[in-house]
Design brief:
Layout (H helix, E strand, L loop, with lengths): L8 E5 L5 H13 L4 E5 L6 H11 L6 E7 L4 H6 L6 E6 L7 H8 L8 E2 L4 H16 L3 H25 L1
Parallel strand pairs: 1-2, 1-3, 3-4, 4-5
The protein binds 5-O-phosphono-beta-D-ribofuranose.
Length: 166
């Protein structure tokens, strides 16, 4: 059995070329003070590393896995098939198909193995982290308060922008 690490969210990506997008998720996790890790592994280029990560994540204490991948994006699905943890997928625009390839590869999972698939790109990465925070907040009142503040701040920002328009 692998030792507990205190890490609650794993942010996994298929290539370092995904990092500029996946940083959006990492930044949100930092903002909420969520212990997290950032890992590189590929469903196709490093299948054994992917399997060991997925097989050990739960026993290491990880609660939610966020996965970003582009092109024939099988990483989230392959990880979801080897863990019972919630897996949130972020399709990345990495090819001339503009991310539609990754979206369909991530979202079209067969019944029984879910991947909670977000929007393509930065908004998807950001939402993946917020979704992870929402899941963790189910059992954490402090986190729930931070989420309420986050939402309230977004509303204030809109009002500020409105004033700037006038
Ligand atoms: C996917 O292939 C990765 O997630 C990345 O989005 C895409 C291209 O990878 P690189 O060729 O830039 O390493 O597996």
């Amino acid at each position: 059995m692998k030792k507990e690490t205190g890490i609650l969210v794993s942010v996994v990506m298929g290539s370092d070329s995904d990092l500029p997008i996946m940083k959006e998720a990492v930044n949100i996790l930092k903002e909420f003070g969520i212990p997290h890790e950032v890992l590189l592994t590929s469903a196709h280029r490093s299948p054994e590393r992917t399997s060991s990560f997925a097989g050990e994540a739960a026993e290491r204490g990880v609660k939610v896995i966020i996965v970003g991948a582009g092109a024939a994006a099988h990483l989230a699905g392959v990880i979801a098939s080897q863990t019972h943890l919630p897996v949130i997928g972020v399709p990345i625009d990495a090819t001339s198909l503009g991310g539609l390839d990754a979206l369909l590869s991530t979202v079209q999972m067969p019944g029984g193995i879910p991947v909670a698939t977000m929007a393509i790109g930065k908004a998807g990465a950001r939402n993946a982290a917020i979704m992870a925070v929402r899941i963790l907040a189910l059992k954490d009142d402090g986190l729930r308060e931070k989420l309420n503040d986050y939402v309230a701040n977004m509303a204030k920002e809109i009002e500020k922008k409105q004033k700037n328009l006038n």
